[in-house]
Write a structure and sequence with these properties.
- The protein has 380 residues and is an alpha/beta fold.
- It folds into two domains: 193 residues, Rossmann fold (3-Layer(aba) Sandwich), CATH 3.40.50; 158 residues, Glycogen Phosphorylase B (Rossmann fold, 3-Layer(aba) Sandwich).
- It is 41% helix and 15% strand.
- Strands 3-2-1-4-5-6-7 form a seven-stranded parallel sheet, with helices on both faces.
- Helix 3 packs across helix 4 and helix 6 crosses helix 11.
- It is globular, with a radius of gyration of 21 Å.
- The two termini are 35 Å apart.
């Protein structure tokens, strides 16, 4: 990593449900690799079976513990038993590893982190990875999350909107954005590039990501921009539905579905523009990476994190959510005005200065150090 300056080595325990494909997992791998790269001790704990291969590469210096405790079964009783086993196992891991901080990625994992660390005087940091104002916890998990967020040592969110929502739990809520650098485009891509020029979107094909809105928007401009296709990078539960939707609009040959990708960036950087159509979003990693590539970008107002990244008309465009017509007009404006598109792309590329890895890691380091000092005072 980057932090060549000397520092007291940290011992970090990182709790996350799994290390498969996903935005939270990608950020977890980036952060953990950065800490391990400068000599810190990093242990990742997941619910997965021991030996499960992570989707994103991890440093060989990171210790990954798979607890083999996936799934809750059906019914409240089985869920209680499953999570009790997780709490007991995590508590033992905490005692064995003696971490300076326990980072919990996700509200459900944060609940288990708080319960596992009870009485151990550890710095437990809950990390909210979505926008809780539009994607709230439900049922018993809402009560447990509310309890956890009030009792963790520190609570971290990614956007001002999430911070405002979480102030109901505690007065101090820290914002730490995800780190972003310009993605590597020199390695071979694992997806195929369309033969013609194309608009791109990157993300899980699920309802909240809003690709159905983007497909409708593209249908509105497909007749005007007959030389342009749409590339949807990612897999997910809505794939078959979206394929049928594309076919019903007569766009089966012009809308391309790649499936999940580990390295889409050599193809992505060749797009005319990037669109984030999400209905809601925590921190839009895909948008930040597209901006880092210097692509002109369009995002919906429903993606709270997008508003923290895009300065309208300077480095991107924001359109109303659930509005295919507005999205189509924005896409048409960028495809029709090359100078404007280039201006937005040049502005977008500067996002790497704001989300530089060293700056983000320094924020985490400061939080971990502050929490450790607070715990020392409590133990004194």
């Amino acid at each position: 990593m980057t932090g060549a300056q000397s520092h007291n080595k940290l011992n970090i325990l990182f709790l996350i449900s799994d290390m498969q494909g996903g935005g939270a997992q990608r950020v977890a791998s980036l952060l953990c690799n950065a800490w391990a790269g400068r000599g810190d001790m990093v242990t990742i704990v997941t619910y997965e079976p021991e030996g499960t291969q992570p989707f994103y590469p991890l440093s060989e210096n990171i210790d990954v513990i798979g607890m083999d405790l996936q799934g809750n079964g059906s019914g409240v009783g089985k869920a209680l038993i499953s999570n009790s086993k997780r709490v007991l196992r995590i508590s033992k891991i905490i005692k064995d590893t003696k971490p300076d901080a326990i980072l919990c990625f996700g509200y459900d994992v944060s609940v288990l982190g708080v319960l596992s660390a009870m009485g151990l005087h550890k710095n437990v940091i809950a990390c909210e990875r979505s926008d809780p104002s539009v994607y709230p916890a439900a049922g018993i998990w809402k009560k447990l999350r509310d309890y956890a967020y009030r009792h963790v040592d520190q609570l971290v969110v990614q956007t001002p909107a999430a911070q405002e929502y979480c102030h109901q739990f505690r007065p101090a809520v820290d914002i730490i954005p995800n780190p972003v650098s310009r993605p590597d485009t020199t390695s071979p891509a694992d997806i195929k590039k369309p033969d013609r020029r194309f608009i791109a979107s990157l993300g899980r094909l699920s309802h909240e990501k809003g690709h159905d809105i983007l497909i409708e928007a593209f249908a509105n401009i497909a007749g005007t921009h007959k030389d342009t296709d749409l590339l949807l990078i990612g897999g997910g539960p809505c794939l078959e539905f979206y394929e049928k939707k594309a076919a019903s609009l007569g766009l089966k040959e012009r809308i391309h579905f790649t499936g999940q990708s580990k390295n889409p960036f050599p193809v992505l950087e060749q797009a005319e523009l990037f669109v984030l159509p999400s209905r809601f979003e925590g921190f839009p990693n895909a948008l930040a990476e597209a901006m880092a590539l210097g692509l002109p970008c369009i995002a919906t107002g429903g993606a709270a994190g997008a508003k923290a990244l895009i300065d309208y008309g300077r480095n991107g465009l924001i359109v109303p959510g659930e509005d295919p017509k507005a999205m189509a007009e924005a896409m048409d404006s960028l495809l029709s005005d090359k100078d404007f598109a280039q201006k937005l792309g040049a502005g977008a590329a500067k996002i790497t200065e704001y989300l530089d890895m060293d700056k983000v890691i320094a924020m985490w380091d400061s939080l971990i150090k502050t929490g450790d000092e607070d715990n020392v005072e409590q133990r004194a």
